[in-house]
Amino acid sequence: MANSYPNLLKPLDLGFTTLKNRVLMGSMHTGLEEEKNGFSKLASFYEERAKGGVGLIVTGGISPNFRGRLAPFGSEMSKPWHVGKHRQVTDAVHKYGSKICLQLLHAGRYSYHPFSLAPSAIKAPINPFKPKAMSERQILKTIKHYARGAKLAQKAGYDGVEIMGSEGYLINQFLCPRTNKRTDDWGGSFENRMRFPLEIVKAVRAALGEKSIIIFRLSMLDLVEDGHQLDEVLQLGKLLEQAGVTIINTGIGWHEARVPTIVTSVPRGAFSWITERVRRELSVPVVAVNRINTPEIAEHILESNQADMVSMARPLLADPEFVNKAEQGQSERINTCIACNQACLDHVFENKRASCLVNPRACYEQELVMKPADKKKRLAVIGAGPAGLAFACNAAERGHQVDLYDKAAEIGGQFNYAKQIPGKEEFYETLRYFKHRIEDTGVQLKLGKEQSCEGLLAEKYDDVVLATGVSPRKVDIPGVDLPHVLGYLDVLRDHKAVGKKVAVIGAGGIGFDVSEYLTTEKSLTLDEKEWSERWGIDKDYSDRGGLKPQQPEPSPRQVWLLQRKESKVGKGLGKTSGWVHRNELKSKSVNMWNGVTYHRIVPEGIEIERNGEKQLLEVDNIVICAGQVPQRELHDALEAAGQSVHLIGGADVAAELDAKRAIRQGTELAARI
Predict the structure, then answer these.
(1) CA distance 557 to 519
(2) Tell me, what's the pLDDT at 657?
(3) How far is it, in rounded angstroms, from Cα 507 to Cα 514?
(4) Are the CB atoms for 50 and 63 separated by under 8 Å?
């Protein structure tokens, strides 16, 4: 079979060692680093990715000392007894010919504890703790700690280290006038500001010798005011080469930047242009990052000389077999990362273990095990939404005989509405993946068939799994039956005509999605140039940080997004992506109103009360997005007839169309049935 991805799968000779391909698994904190017995689980997690064909893995960020920890009990590599537990990880990865580097990360002013240090005593907008300014002694000590951490990593069997110099962490803080206001030899001119990273690299190279990999994560585009200038990025890149760096990895944006860099609405490969520009000036291999989630986009970046390697973190959570499938010409069977952040980054920022919405086995490799079934059963699954699909495919893979029913003519359930929302085009990929998986696992798919209790009982199934999803909740507002009142399914499923002025009732995830749908003429996710303009990314790099004013999008409609609660509109959205959705609607002049009382709907619009004032909101249509109720009609009848029956997904709990919980529940039930 001809290799479809010759550049992606080509080995990379680093002189003293060779990587088997151009795929770098980017650093990602999982939370296992701090769990009891977490390193054994971490070893299983990385082992699956090494077995799946990844050339080079970089661990989540580990601090070189106590003060640099991300959180009070964060991991560090600073004592001889830290070595043993890491050895489990390196041994597991080396079984499959992959290489692994430990990422050394000092959080600086992003450290979420009162002992934080930074170049200057300036509090980060995303952290309640104000750091102390480092003394010269502390700076010199920290450089030594990096070298010590690297040496310990080498003892633990790592092939090298990645020095985290981007995303607004300590090294990045030294480099930029935004956070470095020092007047000594470590601040002021760029020569002084870049002393810190250069001294670290020299110390680490001296500690490791010539035959270890040193990756430096260089912030190429800070996307904050008073960040880097392009000439500074290039100057530092060249000096890092001379100081002994093996590979330059790209860093994009600080955590406090108000430009999205990895959420699902960011176009694929949106930042490879800056990697290409920096690569032209350097001689060591350079890595492209962010929203590279298919072998096709990775191959294009490498083939067009934008980079020498591609970094993927979340896509390898979603599918550990990514590289093997690409190599076998099976890319249509890759479980594609949809960049939702719901189970990975959102979990990490809430101090929970990371996982993956489309692959709940990620980071649960030891707990969520799919073994061949002891007793093979005949199973019926009603509902081919995310929960039903996950259950059916996993159960069939274990050897059960599975019939999957859905009254609709296509698989996907609520995903079929979500995929239409501008910025959520990646949901098509999940449905494509499940379509192939149904074929591969032998699930009998029966679409366009509504099931009855009698019909199911007549089939004599061992178990029936109800994944029947949800129905929109009815609201009790006088006038709700008037013809200009629509439900979200009327808009997203039936594409009914909607006027120029619209009130959306309910500001949860669906209310935001419907508002996005109604105010967007063209999805910018599919046009990187227009997307960059909208978010104010300056590709000419004429100012520090690469920013220019954001361009609000014109909206074809005037929309009011209303909620009863007094809390901030959008408060319940994802921790790492909610602000993006709010910003999108704000740019389209959507009125986001909280504390609204609905009095009645009249032909002219809706009568509401807000801040003690009654008013008539004159609108052409009212769209109801006020939550859902489980569809469980079959459950009680089947149970009463003595049939073994299980509820999963929305049919079990109808909370905010939670695909993460639905897929996990389906997978967990399949593992134990």
Answers:
(1) 6
(2) 59
(3) 10
(4) no
Give which of 239, 118, 227, 138 is closest to 182, Cα–Cα.
118
Distance of CA 313 to the CA centre of its chain: 9
Rounded Cα distance between 530 and 523, Å, is 10
- Identify the pLDDT of residue 553: 84
Coil vs helix vs strand at 57: strand
Handedness of CA 202, 205, 206, 207 (dihedral sign): positive
Verify whether residue 158 is a known catalytic residue. Answer: no
Planar angle of CA 3, 250, 552, nearest 5 degrees: 105
User: Tokens 């009070």, residue?
Assistant: 72
Q: Are residues 119 and 105 in the same domain?
A: yes
- Is the C-alpha dihedral spanning 433, 439, 440, 443 positive or negative? positive
CB 176 within 8 A of CB 124: no
Distance, in Å, from the CA atom of 271 to the CA atom of 14, rounded to the nearest integer, reads 25
- Tell me how far apart the alpha carbons of residues 650 and 386 are, in angstroms, rounded to a whole number: 10
Whole-angstrom Cα distance, residue 223 to residue 303? 27
Q: Choose among 340, 286, 344, 276: nearest CA to 311.
A: 286
Closest among 450, 452, 386, 454 to 418, alpha carbons compared: 386
Angle between the N-to-C axes of helices 195-208 and 136-155, in degrees from 0 to 180, rounded to the nearest 10: 30
In a domain, 236, yes or no: yes
Residue segments in the chain with a per-residue pLDDT below the cut of 50: 1
pTM of the model: 0.95
Report CA dihedral (365, 347, 333, 13) to the nearest 10 degrees.
-80
CA distance linking residue 620 with residue 164, whole number of Å: 53
CATH number of the domain to which 561 belongs: 3.50.50.60
Residues in the chain: 673
Q: Which of 110, 112, 169, 488 is catalytic?
A: 169
Is residue 96 located within the same domain as residue 208? yes
Domain that holds residue 133: 12-349
Dihedral sign (CA 581, 582, 588, 590): positive
Give the whole-angstrom CA distance, residue 178 versus residue 545: 10
Among residues 170, 6, 14, 220, the alpha carbon closest in space to that of 101 is found at: 14
Establish if 103 belongs to a structural domain: yes
Q: What is the pLDDT of residue 1?
A: 47
- Same domain assignment for residues 112 and 247: yes
What's at 350, amino acid-wise?
Answer: E
Torsion on CA atoms 290, 294, 296, 302, rounded to nearest 10: 40
Residues in CB range of 374: below 8 A, 6 or more apart: none
Measured from the Cβ of residue 442, the count of other Cβ atoms closer than 10 Å reads: 13
Please tell me what DSSP assigns to residue 4. S
- Considering the domain architecture, whether residues 61 and 158 belong to the same structural domain is answered as yes
Q: Note whether 99 and 69 are within 8 A (CB).
A: no
Please provide residue 25's backbone torsions phi and psi, each rounded to the nearest 5 degrees.
Answer: -80, 110
CA nearest neighbour of 503 among 484, 490, 520, 489: 484
Q: Dump pLDDT digits (tens) for 236-263.
A: 999 999 999 999 999 999 999 999 999 9
CA distance 437 to 33: 32
Pick from 311, 221, 99: nearest CA to 548: 221
**pLDDT tens-digit profile of 109-126?**
999 999 999 999 999 999
Question: In this structure, what token pair is assigned to residue 465?
Answer: 């799994």
pLDDT for residue 2: 57
d(CA 587, CA 597): 26
Say how far apart CA 319 and CA 334 lie, in whole Å. Answer: 6
